Amino acid sequence: MIAFDPTSALAYYYRGICNFELEDFMSSIEDYSKAIELQGDFAKAYYNRGTSKFHLTLVEDAIADIKTAQDIFKKQNDSEAVKKCAESLDELSEALK
Fold first, then answer.
1. Alpha-helical regions (H) of the chain
2. What CATH number corresponds to the domain at position 73?
3. Does residue 20 sit within a domain?
4. Residue 60 located in a structural domain
């Protein structure tokens, strides 16, 4: 998909998911970052990038991404996603202790 449309944020997002499933967290971060570069309000990409960063023990960076995702989800009135972000942020805060 990326070969056909290198400006597709969704293509990078889905490749990021594949890389995450393969536990290639650095590549997933790169893909999510590209998706965010192409579509700045891509909340799911921020959330997933945060999750990938957590797996690399970049907890503070993970928290920043998930907070950004939460802010975007609030603007989009996605209350379920806001709640999921809050739960993830609680878990990440525990990881910092």
1. 9-21, 25-38, 43-55, 59-75, 79-96
2. 1.25.40.10
3. yes
4. yes
**Long-range contacts for 49-52 (Cβ within 8 Å, ≥24 apart)?**
49/16, 50/88, 51/20, 51/88, 52/16, 52/20, 52/25, 52/28
Average pLDDT (3-31) is: 95
CB 53 within 8 A of CB 23: no
Which tokens go with 10? Answer: 């969704």
| Domain membership flag for residue 83 | yes
pLDDT tens digit string along 43-73? 999 999 999 999 999 999 999 999 999 999 9
Count of domains forming the chain: 1
The owner of tokens 């965010």 is 36
For residue 77, the enclosing domain spans 9-96
| Mean pLDDT on 8-14 | 97
